[in-house]
Amino acid sequence: MRHYDVIIVGGGPAGSACAAQLTASGMKTAVLDLAEFPRLKLCAGWVTPEVLDNLDIEPKHYPYRLNTFEKLRIHIKGLAFNVKTTQHSIRRFEFDNFLLNRCGADIFNHNVKNIQRQNGKYLVDDRFSGDFLIGAGGTRCPVYRTFFRALNPRAKERQIVAYELEFPYEWNDPRCHLWFIENNLPGYSWYVPKKNGYLNCGVGGFADKIKSNGDDIKKHWEQLVHKLESLSMVTGWKSGDAHGYSYFMRSNIDTLRSDNAFIIGDAAGLATLDLGEGIGPAVQSARLATDAIMGETEYSLNTIHAYSPIKPWLRKWLEGRLTKKMLRKKRREDINSAVAH
């Protein structure tokens, strides 16, 4: 059995950021991931300058595709306007592989099935043992499932479902477009150009609300496909190759650490409350968990941004129109259910 100071389950940006900081401090670290990198990762793939700064990446020195937008093209109820904000688009296929390969940890292609706590150690599938354990495996993280699901049940009303496709395409419109609340979608759809002939298009929204509307995310995807084709923004593509996934917006998270086990990123459900952006909070949580392991601080979410770095008025509108509206509806349903019983 291989023993490590720290075992990290999940090799995405959160896991690799943790690993890089831990190995730099001299801790023997292993990263376990069920996928062999580079791998497909469903994600719109935009990151903020703050994310790159936290990862010590200079945009001009990043060796793969990186496209920079100085504004977003926002569409709301037939109105279209520009919002100034610096954002970057990357391909997660390249970005995650780059981060993992430079982290300095031992990397294993391993599907974690069983985790036990014995004699102060964490035993993973009788192959690995560690003094500390970090769950960075996303929404279905086995560390969350084993040690945190009972402590932090998922807030169903915060679940986001998305459907997207990233594909080679010589786009003509270089702008990043976001369409909010079209066709009664409780969320938004996007068009994100990537550098050197790639494009990501997708839709995402609150799963509970979509279901209660009698809709499904594939229907909204088909409506986006029709829009993009009718506007000649995308033509001749295999839109049927799109795939779906889900994750959770930030809610009241009670426990992020149990003994020497931690959860970070999407395993903790930290996506922002406006745009549902997950990479920024994931990287921030990784750094905080690492600091806690090294005994420098307690692991707390107090300094992790709950919102994306966009204009305050747009943030307030999105929160009021989407997040708060959903929670008000959920509270009414809970009250009605309690009265009925």
Structure characterization notes:
- The protein folds into 2 domains: 2-54 and 92-155 and 247-328, 3-Layer(bba) Sandwich (FAD/NAD(P)-binding domain), CATH 3.50.50.60; 157-246, 2-Layer Sandwich (D-Amino Acid Oxidase, Chain A, domain 2), CATH 3.30.9.10.
- Helix 1 links the parallel strand 1 and strand 2.
- It has helices spanning 13-24, 49-54, 92-101, 142-148, 207-212, 217-230, 279-293, 312-340; strands spanning 2-9, 29-33, 46-47, 66-76, 79-90, 106-109, 115-118, 121-124, 128-135, 159-168, 176-180, 187-194, 198-206, 243-248, 257-258, 261-263.
- The protein is globular and about 60 Å long.
- The model is unreliable at 330-341 (pLDDT under 50).
- It starts with a strand and ends with a helix.
- Strands 1, 2, 6, 7, 8, 9, 15 and 16 form an 8-stranded mixed sheet that branches.
- It has 8 helices and 16 strands.
- Helix 1 (13-24) packs parallel to helix 3.
- It is α/β, with parallel strands linked by helices.
Query: What CATH architecture of the largest domain would you give?
Result: 3-Layer(bba) Sandwich
Could you say how many structural domains there are in total?
2
Rg, please?
A: 20 Å
Beginning-to-end CA distance, first to last residue: 53 Å
Percent of sequence in beta strands: 25-35%
| Envelope shape | globular
Query: Secondary-structure element order, as H and E?
Result: EHEEHEEHEEEEHEEEEHHEEEHH
